[in-house]
Amino acid sequence: MSMETTAWNTMYATMNSQTDRRRIDPALLRRIARFAAPHRRRLVGFAVISTVVAGLTVATPLLAGRVVDAITGSGSTSAVVGLASVIAVVALAEAAFGLVQRWLSSTIGERLIFDLRTAVYDHVQTMPVAFFSRTRTGALVSRLNNDVIGAQRAFSDAFSGVISNTVTLMLALVAMLTLSWQITLATLVLLPIFLVPARRFGARVADLQRDRAAHNAAMGDRMTERFSAPGATLIKLFGGADRESVEFAERAGSVRDVGVRSAMVQEIFYLALMVVSALALALVYGAGGVLALHGQIQTGTIVSLAMLLTRLYAPLTALANTRVEAMSAMVSFERVFEVLDLVPLIRDRADARELPDGPLGVEFDQVAFSYPSAAQISLASLEEVAVLNPRAGRQVLHDVSFTVEPGQTVALVGSSGAGKSTIAGLVPRLFDVDSGAVRINGVDVRDLESSSLHASVGMVTQDGHLFHDSVRANLSLARRDATDDELWDVLRRARLDGVVAALPEGLDTVVGERGYRFSGGERQRLTIARVLLAKPRVVILDEATAHLDTTSEAQVQLALSEALEGRTAIVIAHRLATIRDADRILVVEDGRVVESGPHRDLVHAGGRYAELYRA
Max Cα separation, the chain? Predict the structure, then answer.
């Protein structure tokens, strides 16, 4: 490694870390060690190979000096050829061991990335819906990408650097002191001149890089919003293309200007270090030449010292920044462990049980509910706030009690924000009640295995969300082993088979971001088809027909009537005509059930339902 390369690494480490003054937490180190324990054999092998490579690195300059002495002295041809052959063998061995070292380094690093990513991903999957409603998606994804890779550098860079650089430094220093202690001490005097430019310019470049990253992020956010289908449609509808072009050019111009300044600072830094590198070599050749002319050292010694100089400066500067690299990795580990340490608000109990076979009934028993506080479900760093609010939200539900008998259909109606969707979300345990209980067949949902509960309760939400994947993949979320015949059957029952059959690739047609290639009604019918495929025993429809036109709504109502036959259903609807035939209608206002009964009785009662129906 040349001194220029080392200096660049020094500057890079300096400008990418603001944590070099923090103390390393021993508890964090122990936790990292436990996490890396499955890879300990490879780590030991990596340490051994790194030591061998470091030894071979120092051997080459010494052999080169011996060759020069043999050429300028009275050495024989066989001695020169022999030394040259040894140098070739050392080079081949260094390359071979270097490949093994790189393989071990990449294997350990990539396996660690895999372990961390899967651990974080699996843990995040256990988080309640409230967690995702508060967390910035980009910040969460960053933990899986940037921070995981940052933690991996602790092993692929810092760990390997400490071993190889320490061994190389010790061997190079011993060799140089043995060859000429005077020249060795003189070259060490230049070390501060070598390090100061890296740190001073590194700080300046760090500021420029942070500015550039901020401008790039702003530019990227704007592109992400404007390049989505809804964003592009909005711009076209309001005719703001020219204004958008000007504003984007301003952001891109800021990135350009910072890039130019950063390039100039880096070039000045590079030229300064070239001068320092030249001064160090000049010192070796000058002082060494004087000593050689006076017969105090041999010519080959000067060559060896010049080659060993980089083996001395490179490890010294690298080790000087090991703490910086280690602290950067520690911060990444802290951020990853921060997510892993977040305890899910909703978890299966140790003695959780499965639901029995057969029809299921649902019971709400004096349920009260408030949305959890931010401190209970989220992290400040994932919400870009200094401190999370520890206070829970206002109480949404008050003493809600009702029963849905097996096979019955109960409808929830009421004003927007009355608590209908919250009631529906408590059945599949998207949230847990504060007091009271939600029971299925007499069993509190908190005592059930989540897999059994979710297999028995199906829900169609208001937004009809679809992934950017094929029709087949979006439907198969309900049942991975579903056949094509079963997929076409549920599409037919959702009155969507003709639409899908007309698509260029049928079931394999990609639906686009959030299903944007489909109309609102088609997206909703596809989500209904997905629930039909799941065949749940309890079905919850949260405004499932809200986006359908009159014709589509009538068709889907027929499909739903067929699908809900013999099943327990909770239906939320604003259009009261869609729930007139429900066995019972509950009117929800301000988190309370204020009326209950069949459609005819509620209309004749002249209460809140009658007002809604007339409206």
Answer: 121
The domain defined by 3-340 carries CATH number 1.10.10.10? no
Is the distance from CB of 302 to CB of 283 less than 8 angstroms?
Answer: no
Asked if residues 177 and 295 have their Cβ atoms less than 8 Å apart, the reply is no
In tens, the pLDDT along 553-566 reads 676 676 677 667 77
Which CATH number is 362-377+394-614 given?
A: 3.40.50.300
Quickly list DSSP for 115-162.
HHHHHHHHHHHTS-HHHHHHS-HHHHHHIIIIIHHHHHHIIIIIIHHH
Q: What is the dihedral of CA 63, 65, 67, 68, to 10 degrees?
A: 170
Rounded to an integer, what distance in angstroms lies between the CA atom of residue 221 and that of residue 584? Answer: 48
Q: Are 443 and 345 in contact (CB under 8 A)?
A: no
Number of alpha carbons in the 13 Å side-chain half-sphere of residue 327: 16
With 0-12 / 13-18 / 19 or more C-beta atoms within 10 angstroms meaning exposed / middle / buried, residue 18 is middle
CA of 205: how far to CAs of 15, 132, 157, 558, in Å? 6, 36, 22, 66
pTM of the model: 0.71
Residues of each domain in the chain carrying CATH 1.20.1560.10: 3-340
Average pLDDT over residues 579-587: 87
Q: CB burial class (10 A; 0-12, 13-18, 19+) of residue 356? A: exposed
Q: Which residues, at least 6 apart from 290, have a Cβ–Cβ distance to it below 8 Å?
A: none
Indicate the SS3 state at residue 476: helix
Neighbours of 459 (CB within 10 A): 21
In sequence order, the β-bridge partners of residue 364 are: 402, 438
Q: Is 595 helix (H, G, I), strand (E, B) or coil?
A: strand
Report CA 2 to chain centroid distance, whole Å: 35
Helix (H), strand (E), coil (C) string for 56-101: HHHHHHHHHHHHHHHHHCCCCHHHHHHHHHHHHHHHHHHHHHHHHH
- In the chain, CATH 3.40.50.300 sits at 362-377+394-614
How distant, in Å, are the alpha carbons of 56, 199, 292 from that of 286?
Answer: 27, 28, 10
Q: What is the pLDDT of residues 449-502, one digit of tens each?
A: 988 888 889 888 777 778 878 888 888 888 888 898 999 988 888 888 888 888
Query: Which amino acid does the sequence have at 452?
Result: S
Name the token pair of 448: 């059930």
Extract the tokens encoding 176. Answer: 């140089």
161 neighbors 325 (Cβ within 8 angstroms): yes
CA dist., res. 73 & res. 291, Å (int): 17
- Based on C-alpha coordinates, what's the Rg of the chain? 35
Q: Residue 198: enclosing H or E segment and its boundaries?
A: helix 191-227
Which tokens go with 94? 């260094």
